[in-house]
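Structure (tokenized):
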């Protein structure tokens, strides 16, 4: 899962744990104990997601050269699916009304966060990254940001066309998968 799903699944963690969960890809071992617990939650969510048969089906929807990036692309697409069906999954009226206060709480503790975590959460907030997943165009911008930072990710450019063409298939897989992931998080990780 990508940023929006991680934030949504772990909204009941402490602010520091939620920050670790959200910034786990950039801060693997840094931070205080609560932050590191959040990183471990992130890893366990990813492990469940990466080995699930429904996410394997989502990755397989990407043809040819995109298949190599199927994990990252399906994570982005599943965040789009979560944002698209937001009212089915959240009591918050909009993605923004959920995301903004969560990120603000995390940044309120920036003195206790690893520097890289503060940087990425600040960028998420300023660029409204998580809200942008509501549209395929926003997902395209996320792909372009990755390609700017990592040249290998240029192979993902244009994948939003596949996402748009196969959006109903992705949405169907997400609708079947997300309740299972939520149950896993609630039962196995004792959160949510």
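Design, position by position:
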């Amino acid at each position: 899962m990508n940023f929006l799903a991680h934030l949504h699944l772990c909204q009941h963690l402490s602010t520091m744990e939620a920050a670790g969960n959200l910034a786990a890809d950039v801060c693997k071992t840094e931070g205080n104990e609560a932050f590191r617990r959040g990183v471990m939650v992130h890893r366990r969510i990813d492990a469940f997601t990466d080995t699930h048969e429904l996410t394997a089906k989502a990755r397989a929807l990407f043809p040819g050269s995109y298949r190599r990036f199927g994990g990252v692309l399906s994570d982005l697409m599943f965040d789009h699916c979560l944002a698209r069906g937001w009212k089915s999954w959240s009591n918050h009226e909009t993605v923004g009304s959920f995301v903004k206060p969560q990120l603000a709480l995390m940044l309120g503790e920036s003195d206790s966060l690893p520097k890289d975590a503060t940087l990425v959460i600040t960028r998420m907030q300023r660029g409204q990254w998580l809200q942008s997943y509501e549209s395929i165009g926003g997902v395209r911008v996320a792909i372009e940001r990755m390609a700017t930072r990592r040249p290998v990710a240029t192979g993902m450019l244009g994948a939003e066309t596949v996402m748009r063409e196969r959006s109903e298939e992705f949405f169907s897989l997400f609708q079947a998968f997300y309740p299972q992931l939520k149950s896993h998080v609630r039962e196995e990780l004792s959160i949510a």
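Reviewer-requested clarification: The mean pLDDT is 93. Residues 167-188 form the longest helix (22 residues).
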